[in-house]
């Protein structure tokens, strides 16, 4: 046997290098210092603060209630509970995407009382074993989920939980188990799970929180009496999603602190998605954020969409190209023409003069937006309680109509409301007018003081007006008077117009006419009619729909028909839509060839067309000896096209495939 030197051996040495320890220098994107991004970030920060305030307000009542419920349970001795499981049923509503945020708030609220919580979702609990393992695993490993596990999930059982509770918890510490989506659990699994918890409730304090999306009857339908008898239930109600959305709109979209305005079809799209799709406030806010990004992205002129006190500083940061781009905005062009017409001059404005004029336009829009929101609340207060509510009952319905119609007085629902106002009693009308007066007083504005004075005058006239009708002389058509049909029609019309009215009726009509002509028609004009509205308003519904609810089929067609859109490479650039260069991916070539075919596609002809493009030989001759690699490429592309759902095998002809679209 040969001697083997020890020096030739291989020894393991644990080095200092670890995977992922390499420090990579972060390079900030260039757009972080662009004016448009700074304005966007400032606006979104203001919106986020408003969102957090709304969440704290909405969840505050239910969080305080659950905290009080768990704290009282912790103070009680385990012997006095009588083997009952303390259960809180939270009626969360059907807004499933928002539930996780609410339960996260509940966990953080209960942390001072107990740190042992488990959140269970139906997707992780298909049977009794999985729900027990998931619950016990979260309770035991809650504090060190990122470190080495104390107990593996396969070792999690009630005996291990009891042992851990006796050695690591105080006797009064409750274990919180949150069943997030109650309706999605199998009733049999929940029944067995609760019965098992009940059998250990004499030694472990359990608190179960059910998140119920529908009604309380769902609990009684899923759990039998022998199970519910072991639960000590307290019910908590959360605010409805419609009301939460109203709070969001009130503090964000309808707030004068937010210069960005969502108008037109874009606003309708977001509200329709909320009302008819998911009832999720979080999804609404994310869609609103996407609209904001589309409005600001890469457009420095929209950096002027900010607070008026920052407008001059942002204006000075714009380049000459940005100023020229602002001058080309349609509303600005119209305003400049009117300005030149008033000055009786055709000279083009210099940049400094234009900046002064632009600041005037920005100031006008801010003043307009402030008054628009105030008078919108007045209109809503006056017309939301009318019979059948032609304009709607929610403030968002009024806003949606105003930002979509060109002129308020052309809206049929508005005309119907004006007619219904004339049928209100004196007390109802005075109540609405005084409410409008209080809204105007709440937000003082020197520009609408004349509205306040005139409205007070109309209120006094209505209060002092008499209800008795004055007797007016009536004309009588004598039997001997001969009139043709036209003369008779004119006389009857004149008589109908001269009928007598009571002083109250006249004062009522005068007040309604004043509100219509001097208030609503003046201050509630469409934002898109204001100069420089392009800087503040986003109304492109089609662009918003494309990014929020894109059409998958259309995106696949675009990617296959013109892959340069997504690949962004020069070799895939098409001279025209019908061109099929050989540099395209095989799947794109197959797809474009299949678009030229009829309902049935001959596989052999399809292969020959593919070969002519990929491997042209001579004058488009038939290629019988096919290269196996090219045939494999063709077969793979056809299989991928079938997987995408554009073709399927034909039963009529074995050598054909059938087009599906």
What gross morphology would you assign? globular
What does the main sheet amount to? Answer: 5 strands, parallel
Helix content: 40-55%
Q: Which residues form runs of ≥5 with pLDDT under 50? A: 1-8
Number of strands: 10
Work out the radius of gyration: 36 Å
Q: How many individual helices?
A: 27
**Sheet/helix structural class:** alpha/beta
How would you summarize the topology of this molecule?
Blueprint: H1 35-75, E1 85-91, H2 99-110, E2 117-120, H3 128-140, H4 158-168, E3 175-179, H5 187-199, E4 206-212, H6 217-222, H7 225-228, E5 231-237, H8 241-253, E6 261-262, H9 264-278, H10 281-296, H11 311-316, H12 320-327, H13 330-343, H14 351-383, H15 395-402, H16 412-421, H17 426-442, H18 449-464, H19 485-497, H20 503-523, H21 533-536, E7 537-538, H22 541-548, H23 552-561, H24 564-567, H25 586-595, E8 600-602, H26 603-614, H27 628-643, E9 647-649, E10 656-659
Parallel strand pairs: 1-4, 1-5, 2-3, 3-4, 6-7
Antiparallel strand pairs: 8-10, 9-10
Could you characterize what this model shows?
The strands form three sheets. A five-stranded parallel β-sheet has the order 2-3-4-1-5, with helices on both faces. α5 links the parallel β3 (175-179) and β4. The chain contains 27 helices and ten strands. The protein is globular and about 100 Å long. The chain is of the alpha/beta class. The longest helix has 41 residues, at 35-75.
